[in-house]
Amino acid sequence: MNIQETLEQSLSHLKPMLDAAGRAIEVQEVTDTSCTIVLKGFCGDCACSGSYMEGIEEILAEQAPQVKEIKFIQV
Question: I need a surface site. Which of 5, 17, 44, 48 has the fewest CB within 10 A?
């Protein structure tokens, strides 16, 4: 399994909860040490967006520790 598949699988358990709230997470770009994650349907600077980003960072640190840089894009 490559890094992108690992990241997508690690985040897949969030999908039902996000779908119910009209939100989505997409792993857009992955290199050996970084990734870009698109957050769809999230409020700009609200606390829930920050909480999701922190949670995603924790999941990725555990599941893909080689990924040191995570960039978030909100659309």
Answer: 44
